[in-house]
Amino acid sequence: MTDVIDLTLNELANKIKSKEISSTEVTSAYVDRSKSSKKLNTYVEETFEQAIKVAKKFDSKPDFEKKLPGIPLAVKDLFCTHNVRTTASSKILKNFIPSYESTVTQNLWDAGAILLGKLNCDEFAMGSSNETSYFGNVISPIDNNLVPGGSSGGSASALAAKLTPATIGTDTGGSIRQPASFTGTVGLKPTYGSCSRYGIVAFASSLDQAGPMTKNVKDCALLLEVMSSFDQKDSTSIDFKRPNYSLELNNNIKGKKIGIPKEYRVDGMPTEIEKLWEKGKEFLKECGAEIVDISLPHTNYALPTYYIVAPAEASSNLARYDGVKYGFRAEGENLIDMYEKTRSQGFGDEVKRRIMIGTYVLSSGYYDAYYLKAQKVRMLIKNDFDEAFNKVDAILTPSTPSSAFKIGDKTDDPVSMYLNDIFTVPVNLAGLPGISIPAGLDKNKYPLGLQIIGKPFDEQGILNIAYSMEEKINFKLNINDWWIK
Amino acid sequence: MDQVNKDQYLIEKNGKQYEVVIGLEVHAQVLSDSKLFSSSATKFGSEPNTQVSLVDAAFPGMLPVINEFCVKQAVKTGIGLNAKINKKSIFDRKNYFYADLPQGYQISQYKDPIVGEGSVVLDLPSGPKTIGIERLHLEQDAGKSIHDIDPSSTLVDLNRSGVALMEIVSKPDLRSPEEVNLYIKKLRSIMRYLGTCDGNMQEGSLRADVNVSVRKVGSDKFGTRCEIKNVNSIKFMQMAIEYEANRQVELIEEGGSIDQETRLFDTKKNQTRSMRSKEDAHDYRYFPDPDLLPLEFDDKFIETIKKEIPELPDQKKIRFIEKFKLSPYEATILVSDLETSKFFEKVIEKSDVKLSANWITGELFALLNEKNLEISQSPISSENLSKLINLISDGTISGKIAKTIFEIMSKEDKDPSIIVEEKGLKQESDPKALETLIQKVLSSNEDKVKQYKSGKDKLFGFFVGQVMKESKGKGNPQLINKILKEKLNG
Asked: Which of A90, A93, A320 is the best substitution to test chain B (most B C-beta atoms within 10 A)?
């Protein structure tokens, strides 16, 4: 029998349903492996004992109608969890224990899942390497000096290292797809409005979306199905008929038109990524899809636009962390002094950098030149996609312009760090669904991903394309457990 | 200017006349059981921090959800102000740090308010004057910082945090403290008629920022204005305007210039003082709140609300004048407050209109004033006042006796006819009985009768007084007059 930790989410659910294994066995296996994997620094909060308790309770009175029956899951520490410390990997929230549950995690528990713990991420999800966390950087199981990507780096690392059978992240500019690409896993950012933002620590409200990170596409469909719901507590949540993604998953993409945007061929992109992209096209053709060259003319402006819009919203969203009501407080001579000390000591450098950029671009005299203009460009980028989707059903691009980089490589150069999001950011700006699937390895045997971008609410469409490609690519992640003594 | 209205409010200095220009930003608390973006209660005077949800306290991941009722209230108020209703409006974040502002920003409306231009008509002694409304927008209230309980800390009460406010911005059309008084009262009256704001200034449901500038009479250019923040009574607004206008005139006459600034009114010293200059003004970094979609509704939504609009003071006034032949003055007074107009309409269901108007605006208002009561708390019910008026109309009692009875009723709300019985105050209207009394008076004053008959007409009043005295005040004055005239002239 395969080891429990090697099973996919779907396999686990089926084996638990058929009583081949119990929730307690599964949970214990993940707890044990997680305990011996501290070196990766994936967890910021462990709820192992509680998880085993809940698993036992599940086994004593199992409900096999649930979609995730007694399955343990660790989640990104950006989701507020009732009575479980939630930090957003920031000092300013290091002792914060919510009295409420995010809608997305509640959906998981309602489907029978069990919380294993909270996973490390970049502070307030600001970063592309998981090096900005107050709790230290996360190490990729791919190699001991490699970043797992970010901001959902703890989630990607834990998933690839088999410390959780699946996980959830949040994606503001690529924070699910980029780390998935770096770790050889599948990550999907849903259409804006699919998953409720209620109870998720906000970074940039108009871009943030929660999404699944899984071992394969089928798991991705299942987890998305559980996470996604219309929520009246989030005014930007959209009430549309959500398909039964896993049930409707199929590999028939015959006749589908897939666009290849010429603007994604950027200078200095490694040839192996170019080749991978070519390979992706071939696979699609083999599946009966038609490849169409398209243009997304404003692609070049996506990154600067993102780095105006996201910091602007963040500067306002993070104003609530002021030491007055909850979280970290540094004592001060007076109110202003307390604010300054609390926020200087409570936030890390990258967060401060973005608060400063955001404050600047919203300031009177600069608003029109930066924020307003960025909003207009954002509309142009969205129009580019709308136009493209008149001709094609989906778009294929590389997920990232490079494979995972070394720890510390880009920490002194924020701009080169930001450039990592070049292929993922336009998708958030346009509010579209995008999925990254592992597609190959570079010369160092580091995973590389391809991204499929879909029409609004067409998660099913991109899942099906990803599912067909997955079969052809037949990617195998070989990890030798080097971090376990 | 040749035709300076002598009612105009002007400030004279060194022989020059200055006009005062005032614009108001009124903050009116929306009458609603729950807050603008959360379901917390809004009851005034509750224990601190007992009406605070996770949204109001800005916990991580909490999101605002618009309260549709508050939107309706704002639209309703907009209709009452004859204003343009914007079918699409946008909520913005106004960013600033303060201990009683949990989010670090106030959700407000900046460039696209829910209500656009409108107007309010003031009834000035010289005639009606229209005051322009610039806009009305919805916004959240902040919490309350309490500095005087703990000597070393500031305490924060978030009960008010997130409560819905309507900010109603007037055009700079007001020209005197009295116009400000009438404007606030009219605005409050309209909102009370609509049930959109209780207008209770003591509880802070209605507050205003007052913009004041001065200019030489005849100038068509506005002077530099100062904004006096958060004044919470009409009296203080008027005092603040008077002080501020005089300060500005003096400064100009001394050769100085006005700095655009925000000032505070010190109610103890009766002065305004500088709070912050234009240079120190906050940069609020307004931008559309990404947690909220633009607020959009259709014509049907507005039409449905229009159907709920009651008769408003201006319409009611016209009706009172046309239907009941009241003077514009009486009508203005009677419609200014919804409860007063209801009381009046109740009384006239069974009583004479003119007498009812007189008694309500005269005796009853004096009584309420003296006891500092609202008409809804009147010690005399509309039914009993109506009965009292009917006793006058049918001659049972004289106006004079009625005042005595009114006095008794003010202490005990009783059927006046019972009081008449108990105290024996019924008017003597039997001509025979009165004739006997008159005869008695005339016989004992024969010399005066002679003088009267020889042309001293003024003595008639003396005879009336004597007869009244004989009747112990109960004689029917009309009858006494009539019989006396017959006796003396016959």
From this structure: A320
